[in-house]
Amino acid sequence: MDGTQIMKEDDKKEKTEEEVVHLRREIGLLPAACFIIGTVVGSGIFIAPKGVLINSGSVGLSLLVWALCGVLSLFGALCYAELGTSFTKSGGHYTYLLETLGPLPAFLRLWVEFLFIRPAVASYVSLAFGRYVVEPFFAPCAAPTVLIKLVSILGLTFVVAVNCWSVTWASRTQITLTFVKMFALVLIIVPGVIALAKGKTENFQNGFEVDSLTLDRLPLAFYNGLYAYGGWFYLNFVTEEVINPNRNIPLAIICSMVTVTVCYVLVNVAYYTMMTPAELLLSDAVAVTFANRAFEGLASVIPFLVALSCLGALNGGFFGSPRMLFVGAREGHWPPIFSMIHIRRHTPLPAVLLLYPLVVVMLITGEIYQLINFASFARWFFIALATLGMLIHRYRFPLHPRPFKVPLVIAVTFTVVCFFIVGLSLYSDPWNTGRSCALTLTGVPVYYVTVYRFRLPHRWRRIFNYCSMHLQILLEVTQQEVQTY
């Protein structure tokens, strides 16, 4: 009888542990690699070639920019592999700045992420999704802008719903869409390589003409290329949900970034094999123009695959970014409601939902190429700060455990190049860079109001707590019941 009673108590204890509210470790090596590839390979490779070519001035230089952007992104990803294994909290940039440089830079990164970086990037990808879905039905005429934006909002809504519903479903969606987008890249690469092997090389003649190259436009070429590689840091946002992170984070980052770099360079070679530079510059949807040249019978398939690719990138962004807000709220740098998760779904519901209206507003009002330049300054400035913080932390705490350690030359090279590109952009695009810088600095007073909110008038705090309590009840969310780091 005593034995039976003990078994019942054990069963009850096991059931209770299963029902504990927390973010679970459910991301293995394959989902982690798919998460990175699926987030990196989005709209960028199908739209950014135009921006890279405009600002680099020649075919050869644009291919060189694509290769260098891949190498630079791999260097950055390796730095983040060290940071991700040294600091086991989720939150990515925010966590690393908090641990190495202090709370103010960390809060400013959190502020710009949700004020304009994430809304700008998500609206860019959403607009690309809408364009590739709608334009084939109106070719050769221009598709209605209103319809493109409406379809973009529908795709965005689907992604938000999946990420609110289940971590498992978001992960499975990402894996499926990653395989779809890799198939799309292969479908572009193969006919391009075949045509190149048959001697179709006229577009590569005099590929390194530098007459139209100007130093002030070169950073914008790199911004467009680096945007297409953007996403290698998203796995660091969900460190607490990765199984065996010390092994799987570095492996997933290295495998995925090498794969993406090789594919991107080959895709651009395929573009230039089938299209002249002038034709590429005239196209707003490069992959559609390529498909019309390479596949007469399958031309309608490419836009569909590209649209799914954009959806995968959007899903990866919405899976990762809310974790930064979640961790920031947990550290006291954001209202506590955003550090809560759904009691049954185990998803950071408030953090995901906050992004939705911000993205919709920017999607309706924004212009696609301005969005890239506008967001890139703040994004790369804080990435450079994070890797600089890593170097400072190495110097100050040499005995801190680092399961993965990137070579010093790679870390220094990446940090210096990032600061150089960011500094040069102040000269090449002072308007967007200045706006980005000004919006970043608006976070300074917000930081002091947020962190020192206990000094606010009692009535304001009571209203704030009342709203938070009712939101918590409405959304059915609560704080994590166990520590996951």
Automatic annotation (TrEMBL):
Keywords attached to this entry: Membrane, Transmembrane, Transmembrane helix
A Gene Ontology term for the protein's cellular component: membrane
Transmembrane segments: 27-47, 59-81, 115-134, 146-167, 179-197, 217-237, 249-274, 294-314, 347-365, 371-392, 404-427, 433-454
Membrane topology: Multi-pass membrane protein
Main location: membrane
GO molecular function, a single term: L-amino acid transmembrane transporter activity
Domain of life: Eukaryota
Compartment annotation: Membrane
Name of this chain's protein: Amino acid permease/ SLC12A domain-containing protein
Lineage, uppermost ranks: Eukaryota, Metazoa, Chordata, Craniata, Vertebrata
